[in-house]
Amino acid sequence: MTKRIGVLLSGRGSNFEALAESVAAGRIPNAEIAVVISNREGAPGIERARARGIETRVIPSKGLEREAYDRQVVAALREKQVDLVCLAGFMRLLSPYFVAAFPNRILNIHPSLLPAFPGLEAQRQALEYGVKWSGCTVHIVDENLDAGPIVTQAVVPVLDDDTLETLADRILKEEHRIYSEAVRLVLEGRFRIEGRRVIQTAAEKRRANEA
């Protein structure tokens, strides 16, 4: 049975495009992106989705309380019968209502090695702190900011001559790679959660090693 993905974005949608490419190429098998939703009019990611023939919706969030807005988005996702919600640069903290509607079925990607540097401008935080390694994290979303159980991470070096742009570009390439891997893992149900730990099944580990 084809699994249905709902993508939420606020901006350019590069991680959405990476997911769409992986679905089209079969790297995320037996799946489709059922809807792309943005809280911002004119978000470039919405235009990218329309160009691919994917259904889009713009549900403006300005002036709405968090849960009131989330109820509208949850209703749209339920209407499309999505199995998994993927945040792709969605610049809003989800309410407990939203999280409860899709338990352990919301993923986010963040451009740091969580729990380091949560929140906005993670790459800038890493540079200013002087770390030698940074990266990105895919995690299951809970009610707290960038705090849910970690599905997978990728590490990149922070070079002495890095700028914000060069570091962000290096991290972004890894974001595109590991987000697709995490989505496939979760959609296929080849994991379990123990406390904060997301543990791959033995079969999934063998498959990852063979890839």
Task: Describe the 3D structure.
The chain is built from 7 helices and 9 strands; from the N terminus they run βαβαβαβαβαββαββα. The strands form 2 sheets. A 7-stranded mixed beta sheet has the order 3-2-1-4-5-6-7. The chain folds into 2 domains: 1-103, Rossmann fold; 109-211, Rossmann fold, CATH 3.40.50.170. With 211 residues, the protein is of the alpha/beta class. It has helices spanning 14-25, 44-51, 66-79, 96-101, 122-129, 164-187, 202-210, and strands at residues 3-9, 31-38, 56-58, 84-87, 106-110, 133-140, 150-157, 191-194, 197-200. The longest helix has 24 residues, at 164-187. The two termini are 24 Å apart.
CATH superfamily label of the largest domain: Formyl transferase, N-terminal domain
Helix/strand/pairing class, anyone? alpha/beta
Low-confidence stretches: none
Reported CATH architecture of the largest domain:
3-Layer(aba) Sandwich
Q: Main beta sheet: strand number and arrangement?
A: 7 strands, mixed
Strand order of the largest sheet: 3-2-1-4-5-6-7
**Helix fraction bin:** 25-40%
Integer average pLDDT: 95
Percent of residues in β-strands: 15-25%
